[in-house]
């Protein structure tokens, strides 16, 4: 397959889905805007791993404290 007319934008905003209440919340902003990353929630923290920026790959991990 192939992709056509696909644009990826790096963002620094975080949206968190609350399964119990079935709605989205705004989270704290990332230090680096990125896309195509991985996120892992553990206790009251959200870890954002890797991804890409408009110019290059992101090779770091950010820890966001929630609540």
TrEMBL record:
<dbReference type="InterPro" id="IPR015915">
    <property type="entry name" value="Kelch-typ_b-propeller"/>
</dbReference>
<protein>
    <submittedName>
        <fullName>Uncharacterized protein</fullName>
    </submittedName>
</protein>
């Amino acid at each position: 397959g192939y992709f056509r007319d696909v644009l990826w934008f790096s963002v620094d905003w975080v949206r968190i889905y609350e399964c119990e209440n079935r709605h989205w919340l705004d989270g704290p902003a990332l230090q680096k805007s990125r896309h195509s990353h991985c996120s892992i929630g553990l206790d009251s923290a959200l870890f954002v791993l890797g991804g890409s920026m408009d110019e290059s790959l992101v090779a770091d991990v950010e820890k966001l404290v929630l609540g």
